[in-house]
Amino acid sequence: MGERDPVVRIVDYDPAWPEEAAPELARVGAALGALAVRLAYMAGKDAFVKELERRALEAHAKEL
Fold first, then answer.
1. Which of 24, 64, 22, 18 is closest to 44 using CA atoms?
2. Virtual CA dihedral for 26, 45, 49, 22, nearest 10 degrees?
3. Quick one: 44 exposed, middle or buried, by C-beta within 10 A (0-12, 13-18, 19+)?
4. Model pTM?
5. Phi, psi of 39 (to 5 degrees)
6. pLDDT tens-digit series, residues 29-58
7. I want to staple 21 with a disulfide (CB 3.0 to 4.6 A). Which of 41, 44, 50, 53 is the partner?
8. Cα separation of 29 and 36, whole Å?
């Protein structure tokens, strides 16, 4: 793995990020082994909130 830039930058969303995150997720998954139940790329707070909303709607639909 190459040297990392320690500077934090706030930039506009790049649609390529999920694909670029795949190798890192695989590396973390390999390191955690069976401890990793699920690893996923999350595109910041907005995407996280949308995922929570989606799961809540799914859970509610199952109750109906």
1. 18
2. -10
3. exposed
4. 0.48
5. -120, 140
6. 999 999 988 888 776 667 677 778 888 888
7. 41
8. 6
